[in-house]
Structure formats: C-alpha cells, structure tokens
Amino acid sequence: MAKTKQSSPNLPGINAAIIMDGNGRWAKKNALNVTSGHQRGVDVVRKIVESAAKAQLESLSLYAFSTENWSRPKKEILGIKKLIINAIDSQVPELINQEVRLNFFGDYSSFGDEIIRAIHQAEKITAFKKPKLKLNIALGYGGRKDIIEATKLIAKDIKSEKISVDDISHETIFKYLQAPINELDLLIRTGGDHRISNFLLYHLAYTEIQFSDTLWPDFTDEEFIKCLEEFSKTERRFGNRTI
Ligand code: IPE
Ligand code: IPE
Ligand code: MG
C-alpha cells in the first residue's frame, strides 16, 4: 500500500528550536569526512524549514555552531564556514519564495568578513514585515555568553540612567538577550544525547524538550512532524494545578 503523506499539525504562534547534533557520527558511520556530514546536515535543514513553515510555526531557531565549537579543528571550522556561505547563496531564493525571514544570532565575527557580508545581505533581503516563518540561526552562540552580555548591557543602561534597577523584569531580560525569541515552546535535540550544550538557557524555563536518537543528517520531515504532533498533545501546566 502506498504510504500516505502525514499532514502536519497547525501550530501558529509556537516557537520551536532544534539542536542539530550527529553530523560527525553520521559521517563516520558512512566512512565520509566530517564536512560531508555537515553538508548532509545543511540539506536536511531545507526540508525541515519547509515543514516548519507548513505547520505555521512562529519561529524555528536552529543551533548551527556553539561558542564551544570554536575549539574544533581549523579544517572543520573552515568547512562549516564554506557550507554556510554556499547554503545562504543557494537557499535564500527559496526562503524568499516561502516568505521566511532569516536572522542569525551569536558572535560569528571570527568566521570572517565574507560570512558577515553574506549574512547581512541575506537578512536584508528576507526582512519580510509579516513573515510566514522566522528562521533564526544560532552561529557562534552560547547561552551563558548571551546572559553575560545582556547583564553588561543592562548595567551600562542603569549607569547612564536609561533604565532603573526596578525596570528589570522578565520582559526586560528578553529584550537585552541576543536570541530573537522570548518564550521557547519546543526544543528537539537529535543525535541521542540528553543535554542542552549551552543553548538558549534563559528561554528554556518552560520548554517541552524532546530527544531523538536519529543523527541529524538522517532526520526527516516525517519525524519532525511526529515531534510537532507529540508536542501538540502535551498538557502544559506551567506549575498550575489542573486536576
Ligand atoms: C552538530 O554535529 C553540528 C555542529 C556542532 C557544528 P556534530 O559535528 O557535533 O556531530 P557529532 O556529535 O560529532 O556526531
Ligand atoms: C551542540 O552540539 C551544538 C550544535 C549542535 C551546534 P555539540 O556536539 O557541540 O555538543 P556536545 O559537545 O555534544 O555537548
Ligand atoms: Mg555533536
């Protein structure tokens, strides 16, 4: 019998994120170099973004490179840099068609001027006022660094009397953090490990977290839709008594 294509649940207003882990192990398993694993990872991103837009998510934030990943071999980092530049080049026209707004966050300056220019240009030409999906890419991002930098900015603004100590609220902190989201509803981590690896620390307070053993290059839109379905069935209590 022919396989029927799953229809994705509609989740307007939902902010999801993915820790896309497992490229290296996938490459090793397939006797390929690590850059080929990252390349396959980029190919998967395209399909998942399409599914996220179909599901009407508000935003999808993808962890592409962490502050800790700078300690990887130079060759791997150079490979990732080239892949990102190529991916921007080849995927931005599709993002424009789908009315997806692209936004990078993190400190990616060490990747060099070429990538900075490509990112700024891509952000400019996808800056839809009412995008169908906000696609946020964490590049050179670390949750701790984000909190540290936000704290410094708040301290400076208090010192210059732009804000007062009493202005510091939950919302103020979101405003000062670099990650372009507030509440995070769903986080998926592929690759079998059960950790956060310094991703969106402040935003994770009430996030539903799902772990998949699938290595990121093997992750499919079908599995992504299953994650969204499971999320939509979850009762979120936020500390309340509901029975
Ligand atoms: C995730 O895949 C991508 C990045 C961290 C850049 P990995 O490269 O961490 O893959 P594994 O965990 O070694 O399999
Ligand atoms: C998390 O994966 C970072 C990204 C997916 C970009 P890592 O492979 O860097 O995390 P650890 O080292 O397993 O914690
Ligand atoms: Mg990893």
Outline the secondary-structure elements.
Layout: E1 15-19, H1 23-29, H2 34-54, E2 59-66, H3 74-97, E3 100-105, H4 113-125, E4 133-141, H5 143-159, H6 170-176, E5 186-189, E6 208-211, H7 221-233
Parallel strand pairs: 1-2, 1-5, 2-4, 3-4, 5-6
The structure holds 3-methylbut-3-enyl trihydrogen diphosphate (2 copies) and magnesium ion.
Active site: 21, 69
EC number: 2.5.1.31
Binding site for substrate: 22-26, 38, 66-68, 70, 72, 189, 195-197
How many domains in all? 1
Strand order within the widest beta sheet: 3-4-2-1-5-6
What percentage of residues falls in helices of 4 or more residues?
40-55%
Shape: globular
- So how many helices? 7
CATH architecture, by name, is 3-Layer(aba) Sandwich
Mean pLDDT: 96
- Percent strand: 5-15%
> What name does CATH use for the topology?
Undecaprenyl pyrophosphate synthetase
CATH homologous superfamily heading = Decaprenyl diphosphate synthase-like
Name the bound molecules.
3-methylbut-3-enyl trihydrogen diphosphate, magnesium ion
Unreliable residue runs? none
The major pleated sheet works out as:
6 strands, parallel
Structure class: alpha/beta
Overall radius of gyration: 19 Å
The N- to C-terminal Cα distance equals 43 Å
Keywords: Cell shape, Cell wall biogenesis/degradation, Magnesium, Metal-binding, Peptidoglycan synthesis, Transferase
Active site: 21, 69 (proton acceptor)
InterPro entries: UPP_synth-like, UPP_synth-like_CS, UPP_synth-like_sf
Subunit structure: Homodimer.
